[in-house]
Amino acid sequence: MTKVQIKATFAYDIHDVWNTVTDLNNQLWRHDIEKIEIIDNQTFIEYTKDGYSTTFTITKFVPYKQYEFDIHNENMSGHYSGIFSFHNSKTSIEFTEDITTHKIYLKPFVKTYLKKQQKAYIKDLQNALKSNKL
C-alpha cells in the first residue's frame, strides 16, 4: 500500500471549502474531470477527460469535519480521508490516500502520480474558491 498526504490552508470559510469539495453536481472547477455520475447517496463515478473511470463509495460524511471514501478502478483501490478544520478565519485541510495498485508495473510510479494529482487538486480548489469570491 502507498500512502500520500497533502495539507493546505485557505483564506476562506470552512463552509465554502467543504461545499466546493463535496458538491458532486459541480465539479467543473476540476481540470481533469469530464463528468461525475452519481449512482446513489453513497456511490459516484468520476470520468477523466480521457474517459477513464474511478468509482468512489462514501464511507464517512461529517459536515465541515470529515469526508472519506473508498476508491476503485482497474489500476488501483484504496481509501481517501479528508479532514477539515477552521481557525483564525482560515480553513485547513488534510487529505490522505492509502492506495494499492492492481498492476505490479505501476507500483514504482504510484506515489509520484498521487502526489502530482493531490497538488493539482489543491491548485484547482484554490482557483475555484478564488473565482467564487470575485
How would you portray this structure in words?
The protein is α+β, with helices and mostly antiparallel strands and 134 residues long. The chain has a single domain (2-21, 59-133), classed as START domain (Alpha-D-Glucose-1,6-Bisphosphate, Chain A, domain 4), CATH 3.30.530. It is 27% helix and 46% strand. The protein has helices at residues 14-22, 107-133; strands at residues 2-10, 33-38, 43-48, 53-62, 66-72, 76-87, 90-101. Strands 1-7-6-5-4-3-2 form a seven-stranded antiparallel sheet, covered by helices on one side. The chain is globular and about 45 Å long. It starts with a strand and ends with a helix.
CATH class: Alpha Beta
Mean pLDDT value: 95
Q: What is the SS-derived class?
A: alpha+beta
Helix content: 25-40%
CATH topology: Alpha-D-Glucose-1,6-Bisphosphate, Chain A, domain 4
Radius of gyration: 15 Å
User: Terminal Cα separation, in Å?
Assistant: 41 Å
Low-confidence stretches: none
Please report which band the strand proportion falls in: under 5%, 5-15%, 15-25%, 25-35%, 35-45% or over 45%.
over 45%
> CATH H level: which superfamily?
START domain
Strand order of the largest sheet: 1-7-6-5-4-3-2
* Structural domains: how many: 1
Q: Quick one: biggest sheet?
A: 7 strands, antiparallel
How many DSSP E strands? Answer: 7
Q: Indicate the CATH architecture.
A: 2-Layer Sandwich
Encode the helix/strand succession as letters. Answer: EHEEEEEEH
Shape: globular
